[in-house]
Specification:
Layout lengths: L1 H17 L2 E6 L5 H12 L3 E5 L2 H11 L13 E6 L3 H15 L3 E7 L2 E4 H9 L3 H42 L1
Antiparallel strand pairs: 1-3, 1-4, 2-3, 4-5
Helix pairs in contact: 1-3, 2-4, 4-5
Function: Forms part of the ribosomal stalk, playing a central role in the interaction of the ribosome with GTP-bound translation factors.
Protein name: Large ribosomal subunit protein uL10
Pfam family, one: Ribosomal_L10
Length: about 170
């Protein structure tokens, strides 16, 4: 039995280390159909939800170097959301699903080794998508360059307008 637990903890530790985030949710009262629907929605973002024994998760979290305070949230019927991609997209799906079905309830989470409360995860859910943030950053980076190009182009454009006005006046 001890060897089996060690294998389970090692497997869980591998999953935890592969994911930059871990959300702990209370799935009490969630039907199998709804749980399967949540699993399907999370899969679109590259995230997964699993149910493990809380004691195994505590041991894996300790070995992964997660904050000790996480252990206070590992009680009751807990499911764990992990993924290797966009944490904001997973948080958004969790928030929207909980709003739609009133379950599961987000307890806490860990992002890059830092403990998050339920409100912190909801803040992540409210952030724009990764693509939107990248487009905004690109716009900020391009703004000075486009202003410089307009500034350098203005003397030549002014000269062209003056010459055109003189040419139009001479033709009339």
């Amino acid at each position: 039995m001890k060897a089996e637990k060690t294998l389970l903890i090692d497997d869980l530790l591998t999953r935890v280390n592969a994911s930059p985030f871990l959300f702990v949710v209370d799935y009490t009262g969630l039907t199998v159909d709804k749980f399967a629907e949540l699993r399907k929605r999370l899969a679109t973002t590259g995230a997964e939800i699993h149910v493990f024994k809380n004691t195994l998760v505590k041991k894996a979290a300790e070995r992964a170097g997660y904050p000790e305070e996480l252990g206070t949230h590992l009680t009751g019927q807990s499911a764990y959301v992990m993924g290797a991609q966009d944490v904001c997209a997973a948080a958004k799906i969790m928030k929207n699903f909980a709003a739609e079905f009133t379950k599961p309830k987000i307890k806490a989470g860990v992002l890059d080794g830092n403990l998050l409360d339920a409100e912190g995860i909801k803040v992540l859910a409210d952030l724009p998508s990764k693509e939107t943030l990248q487009a905004q950053l690109l716009g900020v980076l391009q703004a000075p360059a486009s202003k410089l190009v307009r500034l350098l182009n203005e003397p030549a454009a002014s000269l062209a307008r003056v010459l055109k006005a003189k040419g139009d006046a001479a033709a009339a």
